[in-house]
Design brief:
GO molecular function: glucuronate isomerase activity
CATH class: Mainly Beta
GO biological process, one term: inositol catabolic process
Strand content: over 45%
CATH topology: Jelly Rolls
Organism: Sphaerisporangium rufum
CATH superfamily: Jelly Rolls
Keywords: Isomerase
InterPro entries: Deoxy-glucuronate_isom_IolB, KduI/IolB_isomerase, RmlC-like_jellyroll, RmlC_Cupin_sf
Strand order of the largest sheet: 1-17-14-19-11-10-9
Number of helices: 1
Helix content: under 10%
Length: 280
């Protein structure tokens, strides 16, 4: 089940619930909440989690700490703040909107924390028709977790992202073993995943709001935004390495494309979003 259509794993109170068991792997997970003012209480269990507003705002209560997340109107209007929840905790979320909870099975217990939107590194990656925006809100060098890594990618209509195709399924120099979840909003768009020798996988899925694609192994990319439709995806990654990393290996047939970006003009549509100024 590499492509999970919106609603296929819904089970109250979750609009989406992807556990490591459902995915058939060990670490990475994702839940989505749709709230209309009510409060949802849950246990994190063996997982560290984030609460990331996709639309709207919320209040997060955990271990005596209350965090007010300002959030955003939608993923296409701004960079959001977020909250970190440790393993073995009980949390309560109250709000209006849609909220993603990326997660990873973890061992080290870290404190409840607030991630300000103003501190999220925003990167423009690629060039030309492969230009896109990456919000590195929970990248290894941006926010401390035990195993969890999460970033957002916004692709302007007609562009390709997650390109050149790359993989992270073999431990070695320059590559780490990582399970990966793609959660989409906007669209329609298309997501490609294909295998390497001895490890087959073959996915070409039309994706839009609420859809998920699981990447247990293999090359993934491109993520294609159809003309007329911007595409957003949330990447959730986790793996067995002691040190958090996003190390990957390009498909050697297409790696040369990176060398062409240096001479290309910037895409004037990027960045598509930014963080609100402090105090505004």
């Amino acid at each position: 089940m590499s492509h999970i259509p919106a609603g296929a794993t819904a089970a109250a109170p979750w609009a989406l619930r992807v556990t490591p068991e459902l995915a058939g792997w060990t670490y990475a997970g994702l839940r989505v909440l749709n709230l209309s003012g009510e409060t949802v209480e849950f246990d994190t269990g063996e997982e560290e989690m984030l609460v990331l507003p996709l639309s709207g705002s919320c209040q997060v209560e955990c271990e005596g700490t209350t965090l007010a997340l300002r959030g955003r109107e939608s993923v296409f209007t701004g960079v959001s703040d977020f909250a970190y929840l440790p393993v073995g905790a009980t949390a309560r979320v109250t709000g209006h909107g849609r909220f993603a909870l990326p997660s990873a099975r973890a061992e080290r217990r870290l404190p409840v924390r607030y991630g300000p939107a103003g501190r999220v590194p925003v990167e423009i990656r690629g060039a030309g028709q492969a230009a896109r925006q990456v919000n590195n809100f929970c990248a290894p060098d941006a926010f401390e977790c035990d195993r969890l890594v999460a970033v957002e990618v916004l692709t302007p209509e007609g562009n390709w992202s997650s390109y050149p195709p790359h993989k992270h399924d073999t431990a070695g120099a320059g590559e780490a073993v990582l399970e990966e979840i793609y959660y989409f909003e906007g669209g329609p768009g298309y997501q490609r995943v294909y295998g390497s020798p001895g490890r087959p996988i073959d996915v070409l899925a039309e994706v839009s709001c609420g859809d998920v694609v699981l990447v247990p192994h293999g090359y993934h990319g491109p993520s294609m935004a159809a003309p007329g439709y911007d595409l957003y995806y949330l990447n959730v990654l986790a793996g067995p390495a002691a040190e958090r990393t996003m190390a990957f290996c390009d498909d050697p047939r297409h790696a040369w494309i990176r060398d062409t970006w240096a001479g290309q003009a910037a895409d004037p549509r990027l960045p598509m979003t930014s963080a609100p100024k402090e105090g505004s």
